[in-house]
Amino acid sequence: MGEAVEEVIVHICDYDEEISAGNKNVISLPHQNQIMPTHLTNSLRLSSNTGTNPHSDWLPITASRNGNAFYSSFHAISSGIGFQALMLPVAFATLGWIWGIICLSLLFCWQFYTIWLMIQLHESVPGTRYDRYIKLSKAAFGEKLGKLLGIFPVMYLSGSITAVLFCTLLWSISISKSRPTDISYIPIKHRTDIGTSFSALNAIGIIAFTFRGHNLILEIQATMPTSEKITSCKPMWSGIKFAYLLIALCLFPLAIAGFWAYGNKIPTGVRGGMLYALHTFHQHDTSRIVLAIIVLLVLIHCVCSFQIYAMPTLDNLTFAYTSRKKKPCSKWIKVAFRVFFGCLTFFIAVAIPFLRGLAGLIGGIALPLTLAYPCFMWITIKKPKRFTAMWFINFALGSLGMILSILVSAGGIWNLVHPGIDVRFFKP
């Protein structure tokens, strides 16, 4: 029966590829239940879910289904904390204590809820696992729109440990040292109310940009085993709860203690954030070894999280190759893909070193991917009755997320035009 299942899988995969390629000579197949016995259909579904589908085994993300709650926690921490967190005190300098804490808390709870939605949607359709964000987007919004919405906004224990360490060191050292003179905690205001409003929206964009990694949740969950009795949702959710407890213990002290230590003196713009503040105000009264260790921890974390964020791209390159060649990638092809993507990313980083100054704008553009799309995906796939609690909550949050994305993007654009940004290509 195993050989028959494999033959059917290959046949269906070939059929789907020919249909997607526009081959009109392919005769449409009846529903699989009409051409296969029930036990064979169930075996087919189980095989595709557990990773025994040969094509899935060739792809980096689904090559192994041995993940567990611990792995999901480490990966979620590595992908959930990045250099964007170092800009949180900059947002507080604009919003102030009250609104800064309120916005940070609301956005944290909001994105934590949308993560739960995505985990539940991973196996929401019997016999199907949405292993990638783009697949779920296509299933919810259609082939063309789903691909546009999913792509447009653009794994290791060591990565999670270094993230926790450098966040803790930064805020603890900052509050242990003397504060700069003449600091103020009054929110920064501009000459006009419009300027103040756009500045506040840009600050919200900086906070939103801090909460990243939603486009990797499904990929992380895809590495876990599943069955008809025990799905991957439970261990994944357990790992995420632990991960985001640690993330909250990193981000909130970093934002609050950082703003307390530096106030309106926190460096902004391209050379802004906690790391620059520590070197600016405390390089003379802090050991060089400690400063070097912090920079090294940030570097290690960036390298580790880069591998996690690169995985979907490498997976897509591998998928394109295996779909065309009908065979797995050789070792040298895999190396070539990684070298190409690494060099491309390095070139962009050197060519455009001022991306940090675009944090508010990028946060506004990518905000729907984190806060809005998962809510609409839930409505489209789960199809709850209209005006029920879940329908209303997700429709309201999704709509609010789209409106907020437009406003925050406008604030990010204003922040680039009004104060201006120091644009220096190829000058990191």
Automatic annotation (TrEMBL):
Q: Which GO terms describe its cellular component?
A: membrane
| Keyword Transport set for record | yes
List, for all copies, the residue spans of the domain called Amino acid transporter transmembrane.
165-412
Q: Which InterPro entries match?
A: AA_transpt_TM
* Localization per Swiss-Prot or TrEMBL: Membrane
- Which Pfam families does the record associate with it? Aa_trans (PF01490)
Membrane-spanning regions, if any? 97-119, 148-174, 242-262, 289-311, 332-352, 358-379, 391-417
- N-terminal signal peptide: none
A biological-process GO annotation: amino acid transport
Q: What is this protein called?
A: Lysine histidine transporter-like
Q: What does the UniProt keyword field contain?
A: Amino-acid transport, Membrane, Transmembrane, Transmembrane helix, Transport
Q: Which residues form a coiled coil?
A: none
